Amino acid sequence: MTADEILSIFFVECEESLAAAEAGLAACREGTQDADTVNAIFRAVHSVKGGAGAFGFAALQGFTHTFETLLSDVREGSVAIDPPLVELLLRALDTLSDHVNAARDGGELPDDAALLARLEAAQAANAGSSGNGAGNEAGTGAAPAPAEAQAGDPAPTDDPFDLGSLLDDIAGDIEPATTAADPVWALHVRPHAAAMRNGSEPLLMLRELAAVGGECLSCDAAALPPLEGLDCAQGYLGWTFALPGSVSEAAVRDIFDFVGDDVGLAFGADAAMPPLTLDLPRAAESPAEDRADSAPQSAGAAPAPQTTTPAASPVPPAPPAPQAAAASAPAAAGQSIRIDLAKLDRLIDTVGELVIAQAMLAQRLSGERVSTSDELAMIEGLTRGIQESAMSIRAQPIGSVFSRVPRILRELASTTGKHVRLELSGEATELDKTVIERLGEPLTHLIRNAVDHGIETAEERLAAGKPADGTLTLSAEHRANRILIRIADDGRGIDRARVFAKAVEKGIVAADAPLSREEIDALIFAPGFSTAQSVSNISGRGVGMDVVRQNVKDLGGRITIESVEGRGATFTLTLPLTLAISDGMIVNVGDQVLVVPLAHVVESLRPGPGEVQGLGTDRAMLNVRGRFLPVLPLHRMVGAGGEPVAPEQGVLIVVDTEAAGKAALLVDAICDQRQFVIKSLDTHFRQVEGVAGATILGDGRVALIVDVDGLVARAVATGTPSGALAEQVREAA
Amino acid sequence: MLLPEFVAAMGGGPIPVDASGAEEVGQAMLQLLLSARRTGEGATILPSPALREAARLTGLEAELFDGTA
Hints:
The complex is a heterodimer.
Chain A: H1 3-29, H2 35-55, H3 58-75, H4 83-105, H5 113-130, H6 163-168, E1 184-191, H7 202-211, E2 215-220, E3 238-244, H8 249-255, E4 263-267, H9 282-285, H10 288-293, E5 307-308, H11 341-367, H12 374-394, E6 395-397, H13 399-402, H14 405-416, E7 420-425, E8 430-432, H15 433-454, H16 458-463, E9 470-479, E10 482-489, H17 496-505, H18 517-522, H19 544-554, E11 558-564, E12 568-576, E13 581-589, E14 592-597, E15 601-605, E16 612-615, E17 619-624, E18 627-633, H20 634-637, E19 651-657, E20 661-667, E21 669-677, H21 681-684, E22 691-696, E23 702-706, H22 708-718, H23 723-732
Parallel strand pairs in A: 7-9, 14-23, 18-20
Antiparallel strand pairs in A: 1-3, 1-4, 2-3, 2-5, 6-8, 9-10, 10-12, 11-12, 13-14, 13-21, 15-19, 16-17, 17-18, 19-20, 22-23
Chain B: H1 3-8, E1 15-19, H2 27-38, E2 43-47, H3 49-57, H4 61-65
Parallel strand pairs in B: 1-2
């Protein structure tokens, strides 16, 4: 594993830690302040600090150190959790997130000086109230009294508390360095072979021990073989450290938290050095093993090969907190494995080919008059199972996107003064990793827009009989192979009169354009549209909603609006589960076979007499329950060969589009409705307007996937499909 | 790892190890150097600051460097 790979794992774990801390602090804010919750927050921040120190991100490590120190006080109960403290911790978490981003992207470091001062002040306030004289700024210098503090040793030192030097420690821990008055206790450490693999390094943990005041008393090198028998991948050494009484056993266990059983620990001078464990097959032939079992228990009892530091001091018989030798077993969390994304994508591609091959087999057998067989049904079932399993590997819960929302709302609260309550549901809903990654930006803008434009000020809300705080509801749910994500606010809703007036003013629509309510709502997605009174850094530049719609469309999705004036607006994103395989209608048009994505299909029908009426020389309209939709002949639009059919002889597929509303596509016939594997036309040919991609049918033929949005928008805008577009599509076909 | 080179260098007196350029030191390197010191005619080690710090941290400074640097 390369250093870059290890680093990227660190940042992935940082994201997980930040999410865990966010969830914990959110629980605290809601009143859940038990030990498990506080511990989870502490451990999350501690994890970031450990990695930051190992990778040399000094600023990140320094900030986490101060953050963690306050959390440690909270964990130990010496600082009470109250709403202002939770808000402070949330703010610290936001800044920690900025530090992680800066470390990962090499960007500018956040200005954390004021926040650090507030965190330190919170500790100092605690010190003042507890009366143990551990104030950071007071310079008293005495170590914070641990639970096992010695009453008979009050002697203060002259050294002021030096935060700077602590921050310089590569992995400085929560307690300050020991003083001469501290009692010491012994810790035996034996890293095994696994502790030196995959980027782990035992010396980093020993440095953390030193950072909390630990001092190496002796190194047990009895098991170390001569060069001829040495295996560099094995761990042969063990160490005995003296630790100050101010350091608890729990703090030490936290240091070795990452490596679990890969490092043997024994607490107290009476405990034995953990036995040597060599990886097979060398273990069986190692002559050192027996000797290791009788490893020395303290510096004084060391056999000849043991190395003892000159400054070694005697070790008292018992540690201050010797219990938990039988430490609680780690939670039986689900096991996981990290996979190179390229490998996963290859698997998905292969599964796509399998889907095609299975369809081809079915078609071939059908030609051989074997249309049904148990074996074929079994293969179909297994193929679908493999496909769904492969897709589920790429699936991630949308909660990872939702978890960023609280921070966005906090920032908006500070800039707009609007306090918004967040309600989430469906966080466990899973969708494709790529969709998840590209969902963040449009979702962020929709939320900012909802708070900036939708939700009223507290005064306006109270005047309207609403609670002072607004409510934003985010939800996600599966529905028929699609994911619906809703962003709903209880604000003022869309002011359609103002939207229409603005659109007319900007020349987006004519003043006499007869637009429905939905069409007026959709105007907010027009490029350059904005009703904001002033441009802010939140929204109102008139580019965001256009980009939002484009982003959603790029994901193969759609966005719709439901708005009730005075009661709020709901934006619904309809997204595919995956970008690789979708559902569609296979249709015949002249000499071509095309695929119409099912996401756009509202209904299909064969028109009765009089339901299609001519308009001008070559246009027609379909009367669907009193509403007229333009009839767009796909035959002409794609330049298919053969004679076009009349609407009464063909099939009309009513489709819904983002830009042009509903329309009826005229096709010769619908052949099938099935899943299809999307192949990029850009990769294999070139981009073609009106074509979203291609797929391979069961009979081996290539069928073009219709870009319903693009094709309909173009046809509606120009009145009739252009010959140039048809020429392009024909060329691609 | 440098183990084959170390083994190959045995037999001709103390193995000279120029570690003055070592910037990162882990347990594997400490074990190798310590084993070299204890094998045959031993080794003379020219340490870098990073190596000396690691040896100090792990209580091995005297055994690794006494009489060599």
